[in-house]
Write a structure and sequence with these properties.
Keywords: Membrane, Transmembrane, Transmembrane helix. The chain is mostly helical. 73% of the residues lie in helices and 3% in strands.
């Protein structure tokens, strides 16, 4: 039963990753503004930009790993006989990965254009 629930919820994993990235970006900004780390530098970049870049790269790598399974299994034969339709779930997972990647890039972009506080 748990395996079926996990298979059914797998296409929503990119959306959870996007939400975690969204929360981390806001946490980084609020922490830096509250503690006065806006002027601090890390790896030659301002503190906030370096952390946002790191979190964004990690989120995009996670999405790439999630999207790898649908791309690798696209050539499988179709399932008949009233069984579950894995192609739709694979397509939905891949589409969710693409949508989450775009939103992650869009929500990280202001950190490099606007001041942190």
């Amino acid at each position: 039963m748990i395996g079926g629930i996990a298979r059914a919820l797998r296409p929503t994993a990119p959306l959870f990753l996007w939400g975690a990235h969204f929360g981390l970006i806001y946490a980084i900004h609020s922490f830096a503004c509250e503690r006065g780390f806006v002027e601090a530098r890390m790896l030659g970049m301002p503190f906030v930009q370096a952390l946002v870049a790191g979190v964004t790269v990690l989120a995009l790598l996670g999405l790439a790993l999630l999207a790898w399974a649908p791309l690798a299994r696209m050539g499988l034969p179709e399932v008949d006989g009233g069984e579950e339709e894995p192609r739709f779930r694979l397509w939905l997972l891949f589409a969710a990965c693409c949508a989450a990647a775009l939103t992650i890039l869009f929500q990280a972009a202001p950190a490099f254009v606007l001041p942190a506080c």
